[in-house]
Structures are given as C-alpha cells and as structure tokens.
Amino acid sequence: MEQPAVAGEVIPQKIWQARSTLNFLKRNENAVMAEEVVYLAHEQVTRVFSKTFEVLSRDAHYITIAARNILAERVSGKVYQEEEVFKAEISINDQLERINEFFDRRIQQSEQKFLASGRDPDKVPHRTKGYQAFCTTQVATEFIQVLKKADIYLVMLEYLWITGELSDTPSEAIRAKLNSEREVRNHLLSIPRKSTSQFNIIRRICSGVMDQRKAERQEQSVRDKKKHEDEKKQVLVTMQEEMANIAVAA
User: Fold this and answer.
1) pLDDT, one tens digit for every residue, the chain (250 residues)
2) Within a domain: 77
3) What is the pTM of this model?
4) What are the beta bridge partners of residue 232?
5) Is 55 within a domain?
6) Residue 4 domain flag
C-alpha cells in the first residue's frame, strides 16, 4: 500500500509535538535542519510521533554532533575513545534497521492477505494528515520512514479486520488486531528507548571528561599561583642578598 502524496494543510511541528521542557529546536536553532512533511493516518502512530520525536531528535543530535564537539575540545586520546560514540550510533542504527525490517515483513504479509481475498492492497481508502517535522540527524529522518511503514501496516490491519479477513471468528480477529497494535507500539517505542539509553551513556562520558578538564584547570591554577608566589619569594631573597652585600661592602 502506498502512502498518498496529499497536498493540503500541514500541521506545524510546534502544534502536533507534545509539550515538554526539552525545547530542542529552540535550544538548537542554529543547527542544520531538513524539513519533512509526514503524511500519517493512524492515531496510534501519530501519538507515538508526538511523544517521542523530540526526545529522539535530542538524543541523536547530542550523540552525533554535540558530544563530538565537547570531546574534541576537552580531551586527550588517553581519556576519550571515539569508538564509544560510534558504538552508540551503531546501536541506534541497528535498532532502526531491525524495526524497519519488521514492518517490511508485516506489510508483505498483509498484502498477501489482501491479494488472497481478491482485494488490491494499493486501494485501501484512508485519510491522512500532513505533519511538519524538522530533522537534525539522519536518525530522525530514518525514524520518520519507520513511522510511515507502521502507519501503512496499521491501516491495512484495520481494513482486514473490518472486512473479516484477519481471522476466522470475530473474537479471534479482535484479539489478533489488539495484539498486533500492541506489538507495533512496543516496536516503535523501542527506538527512542534505545536512543535515550545511548544518550545517557555518552552524556556520562562527556560529563566525566568535562569534570576532569575542570579539575585540570583548577590544578593548573594552583600550580600557576604557587609559581607566582615562588617567584615573588625569589625576588625578595635576591633583594635581601643584594642589600646584605651592599652593607658588607660599606
């Protein structure tokens, strides 16, 4: 089933995005952003989108861009290993790939049920709304692609349930529908959970590095102060010796 490229009203991100204290876009207004318009139909997908997109955007941007800037400015090779950032990025990308493949399989299975019942999976009637989204990393863009596939699958699932093609009996059909919807939600939420877990790991590394750098600056300040005091003492000693020499000569 293809998502329609519908022209019309697009809901601004500041409207559809759930309120939070992150203020990610405002705090990173100078970041490079790619504007996307996402057309979605299923309420469950739009609800996940609303509640998780800002968190995932924050996580991915911090790991990929902000953390590298912090670490590059403040650490030596002994403290910072870039592999830690790569590990975090790979972990998130692997999760995205797994969930992407999951929805590919589910869509394919649903299409087969449509064809078996003599229906065209590309002609499922449904209405979508456009949602503006600003992406600051490729992870955010890939997450949107996963949401689109989840939306396609859930619309097909609901249509199969309505037409009685989901299972042999109504009770089995509603059970299958609810279980599938729960499975979709858990799979979608696993992506921001993964990004946040990696964000916390990298943030701890950055915090440790900044704390070490602060301690190094304080130690350097103590050394500089001691050096200055030693120099003052040496000047005083030198003056006293010169005065003593003058007194002896007189």
Assistant:
1) 655 545 568 999 999 999 998 899 889 989 999 999 999 999 999 999 999 999 999 999 999 999 988 887 655 555 556 788 999 999 999 999 999 999 999 999 999 999 998 999 888 888 899 999 999 999 999 999 999 999 999 999 999 999 999 888 999 999 999 999 999 999 999 999 999 999 999 999 988 887 666 666 666 666 667 666 666 667 666 777 667 677 676 6
2) yes
3) 0.82
4) none
5) yes
6) no
Asked, for residue 115, whether it belongs to a domain, the answer is: yes
Answer for the pair 136, 61: CB distance below 8 angstroms, yes or no.
yes
Residue-number span of the structural domain to which 41 is assigned? 10-249
Quick check: 19 and 140 in contact, CB under 8 A? no
Sheet order of strands, 10-11 included: 10-11, 129-135, 34-40
Contact 32, 177 (CB under 8 A): no
Nearest to 113 by CA among 175, 67, 160, 182: 160
Number of domains composing the chain: 1
Q: Which residue is associated with the tokens 């609810």?
A: 178
**Residues 16, 236: Cα–Cα separation, whole Å:** 72
**157/160 Cα distance (integer angstroms):** 5
**98 to 64, 103, 191, 234: CA distances (angstroms):** 20, 9, 10, 69
Structure tokens of 174?
């509603």
Instruction: Could you list the beta-strand ranges (E) of the chain.
Output: 10-11, 34-40, 129-135
